[in-house]
Design a protein that fits this description.
The complex is a heterodimer of chains A (186) and B (687).
Chain A lengths: L1 H27 L7 H15 E2 L11 E7 L4 H8 L3 E2 L2 E8 L10 E4 L7 H8 L5 E4 L11 E6 L2 E7 H6 L3 E2 L1 H6 L1 E3 L3
Parallel strand pairs in A: 2-4, 2-5, 5-6, 6-7, 8-10
Antiparallel strand pairs in A: 1-9, 3-4, 7-8
Helix pairs in contact in A: 2-3
Chain B lengths: L12 H32 L13 H4 L10 H5 L1 H4 L4 E5 H6 L5 H6 L4 E5 L4 E5 L13 E4 L2 E2 L21 E8 L3 H4 L6 E7 L2 H4 L1 E9 L3 E13 L2 E12 L4 E2 L12 E2 L5 E12 L2 E13 L15 E17 L3 E21 L3 E23 L3 E21 L4 E24 L2 E12 L5 E10 L5 E12 L3 H5 L16 E14 L2 E20 L6 E21 L5 E13 L12 E12 L3 E10 L2 E2 L5 E2 L2 E10 L6 E8 L7 E3 L8 E3 L4 E9 L1
Parallel strand pairs in B: 4-7
Antiparallel strand pairs in B: 1-6, 2-3, 4-5, 6-7, 8-9, 8-35, 9-10, 10-13, 11-12, 13-14, 14-15, 15-16, 16-17, 17-18, 18-19, 19-20, 20-21, 21-22, 22-23, 23-24, 24-25, 25-26, 26-27, 27-28, 28-31, 29-30, 31-32, 32-35, 33-34
Classes of the chains: A alpha/beta (186), B mainly beta (687).
């Protein structure tokens, strides 16, 4: 019986600790600022304005931009908010993909960090399909992702792999290139 | 020794009281979690006044200061940041290499090996796979749902596995102790099978296959994502194999059919699986029933009698709610129900020839609550509470006619576990991952299992991990209570959990298209639950008797290239020692070599997967040596033919290598010969 009492004591202690930790942390995290992924989603929206999809590719698509998300990450809710927005006469649609076989019909592919291990597989799957790849993981651009986010003094920046863009036959407006850091294949 | 039937049945007042308390604590925890989690979200919900950022220019967007610089991205890099050495096998691998079962998949994993006694498959890792252990020291999960049953702790990896391998999206093999998160059984590692979701199927998919020994399998799967927040996947499979006619020299006498075991090796299963996701709710359920003929004369059954077989049926239903909140935290609630039934029929010549039945039924329900939160940019906290009520744990052993009962044990138990982990990003390139779990049991002392990992990235592409972990395994119902009327085996209700401490160093290096992994480990097991012969009664009994250490290292090189060429090669060296005898363990190969490569032969039309596995010599129970062997498997896959047809052809054990696996005391033979060269042809069609 002594043993059992001690166990209950332990569980109680656990909850006490947990509640203290959580109330403390929730109090400290209340500032209202825009989230990283809200901004990144807005970037994605803007990219469509400055990128021309290859002639005759599926991405040249009339009337719609299918933004696909590969893997899992906090950008999902922000992408969902882009749905039905219209840019250059094309309406945004959002699709979540778990495997590379589902890339058919995608115009833009956001590759989450979670898929770092499957990057080569993903890049292989988008080849010659006219899919604009975007990442937010260090090193992704050099590995062949066309646009990749990075940070500089708490601000979001992006780099463009021109070789990858050329190979995929995207033409990127100079307005966009001007703001980007240009990288090469590693 | 007389054992009263229904010793302390499940309606025992004391136990009910205990159980009620467990349930109470669990629900109190759930309520508590909701209270701590929800108010925090209310404050961070977007107020609706936020300006629509999509209307901002690029230049303006680039001026926004973001408060979560420590990108959530970082914490998602699971493989390199996980406090373990992890291998991942994907659906593409399963297709490329023609894997038929989870056992086939595990054989290809660095440092893993699989033993088969023509009834069940047994997984070994780090030199540990004792004959007679039903995979109780590895935790098997399907989408986080525990598969190890509540009678024998079995992790089913052969044809009795609940999921058709075609429904696997990927398998994550996490090495090292995982009890700090998962509790019991996560001793040498955790195998988490992630299922394909509705999106991956898109309509109807049917598959038909035929293989050696009249093996046929069919599968139909329907999957559709109706809306972004509503998807359904339903699948059913049926398999049957006539099996082989076998010969065992140990039985070569006129009284035992001259060692011949004909038509007794059949294997068949039917399974269904469903996954329905609606908004934040996911329901998942599965059921499998597998019957395997026992062709080896195990458990003193008459060799070659087709009336001897075992049926393992397993099913579960799992309902979970997962909600991600603004401000980087999420909550998961889960309820589950599990069913397991084992039904063994053994034709035994006492004489006269009698049908002996060995039956076990396990049922449980439980709940889990899990909460993740990122705080101070540098801490990711995870807290969880899990309750499992094993309300039926029944074991029976009896003769059909004339009826004689040897065992009728009805038990019940529960487990309550609480865990807490923190992933602390100390420096940009240094992470400390630490946590612990406490498990409270009804029948024996509870235990705290800690784990700590230091993950250091000195250079881009280089990861160093220093890991320490403890794990335990509670004795299962079979070990505690099984006796066959005290003819050959007696019970030991006084067993304590066994424990392990593991130290590991892992180096992962990414160079261009390669990933190179080196790891070294040392483990020390105490109070190992071991079957021994009682010196007084002369009966077999489980005791906390063993003390085992193991050490070794592993090397692996993986490469992936854009033109669909992939490959990996690994070598593992392991040395184990039983402290009592000073000798190495049985069924513990020192050397394991694996080689896998797949590449296209004709682009988009034909590709091939080649696999070579070497397993070093292993000691059998009588001390003799089951020699080392080399098995090669070859698979060809077509591209899409006609509309959406894919054809796959495989040859397993290409060079017809003869080899045998060490088996348990329950089988008279020391080692059982394995399949020679076999074939499989498979068609898959989508519409």
């Amino acid at each position: 019986m002594v043993e059992k009492k001690r166990n209950i004591f332990f569980i109680a202690l656990f909850f006490l600790f947990e509640s203290l930790a959580l109330s403390f942390f929730s109090a400290s995290g209340e500032e209202k600022t825009v989230s990283e992924y809200e901004v990144k989603a807005a970037f994605l929206y803007n990219f469509v304005k400055f990128v021309d999809w290859p002639d005759g590719s599926q991405g040249e698509g009339k009337g719609v931009v299918n933004v696909c998300m590969f893997g899992s990450g906090p950008i999902d809710r922000e992408l969902a908010k882009l749905k039905d927005k219209v840019v250059k006469g094309r309406r945004f649609a959002v699709k979540y993909t778990g495997s590379t076989e589902e890339f058919r019909g995608c115009h833009m592919l956001f590759i989450c960090s979670s898929e770092k291990g499957r990057l080569q597989e993903a890049l292989k799957a988008v080849k010659r399909k006219g899919i604009l790849t975007v990442g937010d993981t260090e090193g992704f651009a050099r590995k062949g992702v066309i646009i990749n986010f990075y940070f500089e003094d708490k601000k979001i920046r992006f780099e463009i792999n021109l070789d990858a863009a050329r190979e995929a036959q995207f033409s990127i407006s100079s307005q966009l290139l001007r703001l980007a850091r240009i990288v090469k294949d590693e | 020794m007389f054992l009263p039937v229904n010793q302390g049945g499940i309606m025992n007042f004391d136990r009910l009281h205990d159980r009620a308390r467990g349930v109470f604590v669990f629900f109190a925890g759930v309520v508590f979690f909701c209270f701590t989690a929800l108010p925090a979200t209310a404050g961070t919900m977007p107020a609706g006044t936020t300006k629509d950022l999509t209307e901002w220019s690029l230049e303006d967007l680039m001026e926004i200061e973001v408060d979560t610089v420590y990108g959530a991205a970082k914490r998602e890099q699971k493989v390199t940041e996980a406090p373990s050495s992890v291998s991942i096998i994907t659906a593409a691998d399963i297709r490329q290499y023609g894997y038929r079962t989870l056992a086939d998949i595990l054989k290809s994993v660095r440092g893993f090996y699989v033993t088969y006694d023509r009834n069940y498959h047994y997984v070994g890792t780090r030199g540990f796979s004792r004959p007679g252990d039903y995979n109780s020291r590895v935790l098997l999960l399907v989408d986080g749902h525990r598969i190890n049953n509540n009678i024998y702790d079995t992790a089913a990896i052969g044809t009795e596995f609940i999921l058709d391998v075609d429904l696997i999206d990927r398998v994550e093999v996490v090495r090292g102790p995982g009890s700090s998160i998962y509790g019991s059984n996560a001793f040498f590692g955790v195998i988490n099978v992630i299922t394909k979701k509705a999106r991956a199927v898109k309509g109807m998919e049917v598959s038909a296959e035929a293989g050696s020994f009249d093996a046929y399998k069919g599968r139909a799967t329907f999957g559709k994502q109706f809306r972004d927040d509503f998807g359904v996947l339903l699948s059913g499979s049926y398999y049957r194999s006539k099996g082989q006619n076998l010969y065992f020299k140990e039985y070569d006498a006129p009284a035992t059919n001259n060692g011949r075991s004909d038509n007794a090796d059949a294997d068949r299963y039917g399974s269904v699986f469903a996954n329905v996701q609606f908004r934040d709710l996911t329901f998942q359920g599965g059921y499998v029933s597998r019957t395997k003929g026992i062709s080896t004369g195990a458990w003193n059954a008459i060799l070659g009698d087709d009336g001897t077989d075992t049926t393992d049926a397993q099913g579960y239903a799992d309902l979970r709610y997962r909600k991600a909140f603004d401000g980087d935290h999420d909550l998961m609630l889960r309820f589950f129900y599990d069913y397991y039934r084992y039904d063994g029929s053994y034709m035994i010549n006492y004489p006269p020839v009698t049908l002996s039945r060995d039956v076990a039924i396990g049922k449980l329900w439980g709940g889990e609550v899990l909460y993740n939160r990122k705080v101070f940019e540098r801490h990711k906290l995870t807290a969880g509470l899990e309750y499992q009520d094993n309300f039926v744990q029944t074991q029976r052993n009896y003769d059909e006619s004339p009826y004689a009962s040897y065992l009728s044990e009805q038990r019940g138990s529960y487990v309550l576990g609480a865990h807490f982990q923190d992933e602390f990003t100390i420096l940009d390139n240094l992470i400390l991952n630490a946590g612990a779990r406490y498990d409270h049991y009804k029948d024996f002392r509870g235990r705290i299992n800690p784990r700590a990992g230091l993950i250091y990235n000195p250079l881009d592409g280089t990861t160093l991990k220093f890991l320490y972990g403890e794990a335990f395994r509670a004795p299962n119902t079979y070990e505690l209570y099984y006796n066959d009327g005290n003819i050959a085996q007696q019970a030991n209700p006084d067993l304590d959990p066994e424990t392990i401490r593991t130290y590991e160093i892992v180096l992962e290096q990414y160079i261009r298209n390669f990933r190179f992994t080196v790891s070294g480990f040392y483990y020390d097991m105490k109070n190992l639950i071991t079957q021994v012969t009682d010196p007084v009664s002369g009966l077999l009994v489980f005791r906390n008797a063993g003390d085992v250490t193991g050490k070794g290292f592993e090397l692996e090189l993986e490469g992936k290239w854009a033109n669909e060429v992939t490959g990996r090669v690994s070598y593992s060296f392991t040395e184990t020692e039983d402290k009592e005898t000073g000798t190495s363990l049985t069924n513990s190969p020192k050397h394991l070599v694996k080689l896998n490569t797949s590449f296209p032969l004709i682009r988009d039309k034909l590709s091939t997967g080649i696999e070579v596995q070497y397993t070093g010599p292993r000691k059998t129970l009588n001390g003799s040596d089951a020699g080392g062997f080399l098995v090669a498997n070859l698979t060809f896959n077509s591209g899409k033919l006609f509309n959406d047809m894919v054809v796959s052809a495989s040859v397993y054990n290409l060079f017809d290598q003869k080899y045998s696996d060490p088996v348990s005391k329950d089988i008279m033979q020391n080692a059982i010969e394995q399949d020679g060269r076999t074939f499989r042809l498979k068609f898959t069609y989508r519409f």
